[in-house]
Amino acid sequence: MMSQRSSSAFHNDHSLTSSSQQPPELSRFFSQTHNPSQTLEDAFSRLSVSASSFNYPHSDFVADTPYGINGPSHPCNTWAGGIPTSQSSHLWHPTFTVNNYSHHGDEFLCSKLLTRQSENPTFSGVYPVVPFSNGMMSQKTPNAGFLNGLLSGKSSNILGFSRDERRLRWFNNFRGCVLMLAMDQHTCRTLQETLRTLTREEFDIIFLELINHVTNLMVDPFGNYVVQRMMELCSEEQQTQIVLRVTQCNFQLVRICLSSHGTRAVEKLLEHLTSQEQRDRVMSALSPGAAILAKDVSGHRVILHCLKQFPREDNENLLNVVANKCFEIATDKTGCCVLQPCINHAQGEIKKKLIAAVMLYASLLAEDCYGNYVVQHLLSLGIPGVAESLWRQLEGRFFYLACNKYGSNVVEKFFQDSVEPYSTYITLELLHNPNVPMLLVDPYGNYVIKSALSSVRGHVRNALEQLIKKNSLMMQSNLFGKKLLAWFNKGRI
């Protein structure tokens, strides 16, 4: 209970305030507390601040500017960064219920909020809390559920509009905000479907809104999907505009391809190129960076897509760059997987150039952890003269390669593909080496001996069998020799 002294001081303050001009809500408050027998707690308990006591029209309940509801001239304007001032003739309460606002009001709020954010994206003030269909949310993060329903047209039972009406309302309300919608995790998906429903004239307007930002959208985690949908709907002229935009700067298209998101967008672009002029411009932009793309975990997909989508003559410049950078591509984890299909797709002089580049570095590639796969692939193609050239490049080094973790794979490839007479020549080179018994117990050499026994015939095979018999005791005391000996004995039974 409040003392008599406190109660008297309270009423003195009340009389002083009453002499000045007071807002209606404040007058109501003092009229409710005028009884001198009341305590301060009783007075405040009778004060109502429920949301239902404030009846705002839907159109007034939107913060269009950082100053207030509808600008500085509006009589209800009390907002300075979202904080109400003492000059307000209305009070703000943040917990308005959904029942106070219709879904039609939601749609209007949504459009106004998006426009507000796009017009002043750097505004750092406090945004008022706005109710939507799924509960309370801030203006900074519009309700994704309502936006998705509005964009996709699945909320017809809520909004009460026909499909064409919804499309027109979307087109009118969200123009100028499409870039923001395209880069949002939730609205980008329904925006893609909405683009399908627009007329050609409406799509052209949206295209003009996004074309200046297409390079940023292509590398955006969500915007790249909108760009892909645009490419499916673009006319040839619009496709040319996209091509010109992404190729206007040196290596700009290459940088886009190095992004995991940009790669998908560029692949879609390649699929929808319709003219030779477009293909020439894209390939001119990609070819200088072919070596970089071939070694990149994302960019190499674009190289493979070019081989798949374009005629061989369009890929000629790209394959030339790959041939010139053959060694650094072949010795890369990703690059070795790109070089193999490049050899397969190449024709004529370009193919010869690629093969010659591999032959030039065959000795180094054969013992490289990635390059050996390129050498093996070249052998497996069965191109006339390739096996002979490789044998000549590696002649005299087969014993060393047989003991090498990666080189042994290349030596085995000669035997597995039964490349005669070179498999016989390699076996004789191994047998003539004074350290040949070491191959029987070597972690990698024992596999080479096993492959040779399966491949060669006649006196060469007999010489290998005699080698194993002479060194059987040594092989019994070694893990790898024991396995080879067991396999050999099993084959003789």
Helix percent band = 55-70%
Q: What gap, in angstroms, lies between the N and C termini?
A: 109 Å
Please, what is the average pLDDT?
Answer: 75
Low-pLDDT sequence parts = 1-21, 48-144, 152-159
Number of distinct beta strands: 2
CATH superfamily of the largest domain: Leucine-rich Repeat Variant
In the CATH scheme, the class of the largest domain would be Mainly Alpha
Radius of gyration: 39 Å
Largest sheet: 2 strands, antiparallel
Helix-strand category: mainly alpha
Side by side, the strands of the main sheet go: 1-2
- Our count of helices gives 32
Strand content: under 5%
CATH A-level architecture of the largest domain: Alpha Horseshoe
GO cellular component, one term: cytoplasm
Pumilio repeats: 209-245, 248-284, 320-356, 393-428, 429-469
Pfam family, one: PUF
Keywords: Repeat, RNA-binding, Translation regulation
